[in-house]
UniProtKB/TrEMBL annotation:
Pfam families: Glyco_transf_92
Organism domain of life: Eukaryota
Native source species: Caenorhabditis angaria
Keyword Oxidoreductase: no
GO molecular function, one term: glycosyltransferase activity
Keywords from the named record: Glycosyltransferase, Membrane, Transferase, Transmembrane, Transmembrane helix
Keyword Glycosyltransferase recorded: yes
Membrane-topology annotation of the record: Single-pass membrane protein
Protein name (record): Glycosyltransferase family 92 protein
Lineage of origin: Eukaryota, Metazoa, Ecdysozoa, Nematoda, Chromadorea
InterPro entries per record: Glyco_transf_92
Localization of this protein: Membrane
Length: 467
């Protein structure tokens, strides 16, 4: 290092040190003689909790995992492992969620070890005081990949897992999925949220678009998130349109693709018994029905379909979405559906699917496994609906050179039009939610009642709110 820099650095460090030292270490030696101790806190070694009351819905024990034969088959080496080899091979066992269904509990984890699908893991049950229920250990196995099916135990309020009969992970609460009928007809997996670039604008358009076509629930999995996007997700949770899973792995960085299965299994089990249909896409993909509303179409197919396959087309996006909120006008003019319409013919290559989470036994990125007998896959023709996948032409994204590649392959590009009425509603709804979350104004002296101004004058002056 340039030695002429050293001196200023030493001075600066000393100033900072003195600043913080003074800030945190103010002493009043004149008080030492005067202070007397008047009480002691007593922390006992063991707390006597009140006895647990077992609610009627929790007074149930089961003896067999539903569809165990199908799960065992799918867990066999080579059956589904190759579909999930994207996973990291040494992931720690960390618990994400536990879903309580009528006849079983499924625990989702971050342990993605493709080669170990089907290997043993132990379900551990805890009462309302987080005390392990004696004699309750149940030996299960990983299937699919990161998830574990456990029996129900009467009185269990928390659950955990362990790889042997040693100390389990700290237990987590059960998320209720005891519905006679799923409360949502259409739910949407919104991909993984990771990296610190601000995605609130894209996510607002994603949610508001799918609300317009009939979705009522959005499942987000958050690995890393910026504060603004988190505020938007909080707003969707507050209004009952979203559930957010927070996933904390031991890895640094954003090797996003390599955690995709953690998010997908989490979304699949979160949606089971909660959404009748589950659209498994990312937040840059938009299902676009033509003419007929998508729910009308799905209902018209009858009750024997458990997977719908959609065609996909990419839309070239020529600049990044806005990341900083300035005003609603700017938000209204940044709607992707309005700004970009360059695309190619839709195709079933790398399709995305909508599934019945209660009728299939595993979901991966592009299809499902282990469909219940009597159910079928249905390919949705492009003239009914297709997926619009917005892809930014920017070297910072994976596969962003698709336009150049497709031109080389002689693929024809085209423009499409969207209904004016749809675009108007989309723009209004995005502006409404984004405005609610981010449109703020400063506190001024006039906002503060006179008596409070009097009382807090030095503080208000320091904050430059009042003179
Ligand atoms: C608090 O605990 C200390 C150390 O055990 C003891 O010396 C002191 O008398 C106690 N004070 C009171 C108020 O009980
Ligand atoms: C639980 O159910 C059993 C019958 O299955 C019943 O005998 C018992 O009283 C119930 N316990 C509670 C706490 O409701
Ligand atoms: C497609 O978008 C361009 C601007 O990018 C616009 O000029 C054109 O009118 C649009 N075409 C259709 C068919 O909407």
């Amino acid at each position: 290092m340039d030695s002429s820099l050293l001196f200023p650095i030493v001075i600066l460090t000393s100033i900072l040190f003195l600043y913080y030292y003074n800030r945190y270490e103010i002493a009043f030696p004149e008080l030492t003689d005067k202070v007397v101790y008047i009480e002691n806190v007593s922390v006992h070694e063991k707390i006597e909790f009140a006895k647990c009351r077992v609610e009627i819905w929790n007074n149930k024990t089961t003896w067999e995992i539903p569809r165990i034969e199908t799960l065992k088959l799918l867990a066999k080496p080579g059956v589904t492992q190759s579909a999930t080899t994207e996973g990291l091979s040494d992931g720690q066992l960390r618990l994400v969620s536990a879903f309580l269904y009528e006849d079983e509990i499924v625990v989702t984890t971050t342990r993605q070890r493709p080669a170990q699908t089907g290997t043993p893991v132990y379900c551990r049950y805890f009462d309302c005081n987080r005390v392990e229920i004696p004699g309750s250990i149940y030996k299960s196995f990983f299937m699919p990949l990161t998830s574990v099916h456990c029996l129900r135990k009467s009185g269990a309020s928390f659950i955990s897992l362990s790889l042997s009969d040693d100390k389990p992970q700290s237990p987590i609460p059960l998320t209720h999925r005891l519905f006679k009928q799923p409360p949502n007809e259409l739910g949407v997996c919104a991909g993984q949220i990771y990296g610190l670039d601000k995605k609130w604008m894209q996510i607002a358009e994603f949610v508001e678009h799918h609300k317009l076509i009939g979705a009522t629930m959005f499942y987000f999995s958050v690995f890393e998130i910026d504060g603004m996007t988190r505020m938007l997700l909080d707003e969707y949770e507050r209004s009952g349109f979203a559930e957010v899973s927070i996933i904390n792995t031991e890895y640094t960085g954003t090797a996003a693709m390599l955690r995709h299965m953690v998010q997908i299994h989490e979304c699949f089990y979160r949606a089971r018994q909660h959404s009748k249909w589950l659209l498994n896409i990312d937040h840059d993909e938009f299902l676009m029905p033509r003419e007929k509303p998508i729910l009308t179409y799905i209902r018209s197919l009858g009750d024997h379909v458990a997977e719908l396959v959609f065609t996909m087309r990419r839309i070239a996006k020529f600049r990044d979405s806005i990341e900083v909120y300035h005003n609603i006008k700017e938000v209204s003019s940044d709607i992707q559906a309005v700004n970009y319409n360059l695309t190619h013919s839709p195709s079933y290559q790398s399709p995305k699917v909508m599934i019945r989470p209660d009728k299939v036994n595993m979901m991966i990125v592009h299809w499902s496994y282990g469909m219940e007998p009597g159910y079928k896959v249905h390919a949705v023709p492009a003239n009914i609906a297709t997926l619009n996948h917005y892809r930014t032409i920017s070297p910072k994204f994976l596969w962003s050179d698709f336009v150049a590649k497709l031109i080389k392959q002689d693929v024809k590009f085209m423009h499409f039009t969207l209904q004016k009425e749809y675009l108007k509603r989309l723009r209004e709804n995005v502006a409404q939610v984004v405005g609610y979350v981010f449109e703020k104004h400063d506190v001024t002296c006039e906002n503060i009642p006179e008596p409070i101004q009097k009382y807090t004058r030095p503080y208000l002056k320091k904050m430059k709110i009042c003179e």
